[in-house]
Amino acid sequence: MLKAVRFNQFGGPEVLEVVDIPDPHPGPGQVRIAVRAAGVNPSDWKKRMGLMDGELPQTMGHEAAGVVDELGAGVADAAVGDRVFGFSAEGAAQAELAVLSYYAPIPPSIDFPGAAALPAAIETATRALDQLGVGSGSTLLINGASGSVGSAAVQLAVVRGARVIGTASPANHSYVRSLGAEPVAYGEGLAGRVRALAPGGVDVALDVAGSGVLPELIELAGGREHVVTIADFGGAREHGVRFSSGDAGRAVHALGEIGELIESGRFTLPVAQTFPLAEVAEAHRVGEQGRVRGKLVLLVG
């Protein structure tokens, strides 16, 4: 038996428990890790509140980093004892042991919390940039450029040769600028502020924040087909904008590509705060306040 985060009813952070569950074992092509750190994501509280699926009980966590301790059949690219990070398809990564379906070696220069912060942010950002066709010469507007997905998208777009304009609160403008984007303030008058930087508008726009600005993004990007949101499901339906989710295929190639960018100094994703596994409810409270720059991570073992 191992310790894992689970909830038996929907509700606030107080419904989260750390309980004993049976040890998982890897299937073909999977590895099991002794988890050292696991990422916390906004989807976690959406699940906990019953906004994503109706099953009970539910375990928690889609991304983790740790040390391989068991190999599934046919695994040739990892060995017991390797430091890896990646995705738990079972959604049970916030636990002492986790099975990873997609994984990559942890880049030498980062620690377990830093590695656990990566998978969801870089996969989501890469998938959206792929869907928008962001490449050299593109001008990309990112709504919500200072959070974990937004800051990943800024840096990955810059690596592709794009010009990036990013919305953020004034307190985060210097941070967004440090990532390689030109910052603009949120709120009323956004379109005018963007046009001051890009008079002809932008080529494509990515909505990470879900703050109800899809009409402005459509106008600035010259049509709904040039906009992707990862945060505003209702707005996507209302305005005919593509809502990007992992259901259409994940950009797992990002896991294997990020190491070189990290080691060459072209990508960084800060860990904002860490919590012991037993304090997962507090991690949810902090995350739901929405003021975090960087990533929240649970420490295990």
Could you describe the 3D structure shown?
The strands form 3 sheets. Strands 3, 5, 6, 7, 8, 15 and 16 form a 7-stranded mixed sheet that branches. Strands 11-10-9-12-13-14 form a 6-stranded parallel sheet, sandwiched between helices. Strands 2-1-4 form a 3-stranded antiparallel sheet, with no helix packed on it. The chain has 2 domains: 2-117 and 270-299, Alpha-Beta Complex (Quinone Oxidoreductase, Chain A, domain 1), CATH 3.90.180.10; 122-247, Medium-chain alcohol dehydrogenases, catalytic domain (Quinone Oxidoreductase, Chain A, domain 1, Alpha-Beta Complex). Strand 10, helix 5 (173-179) and strand 11 (182-185) form a beta-alpha-beta unit. The two termini are 14 Å apart. It is built from 10 helices and 16 strands. Helices cover 30% and strands 27% of the residues. The radius of gyration is 19 Å and the shape is globular. Helix 3 (118-132) crosses helix 4. With 301 residues, the chain is α/β, with parallel strands linked by helices.
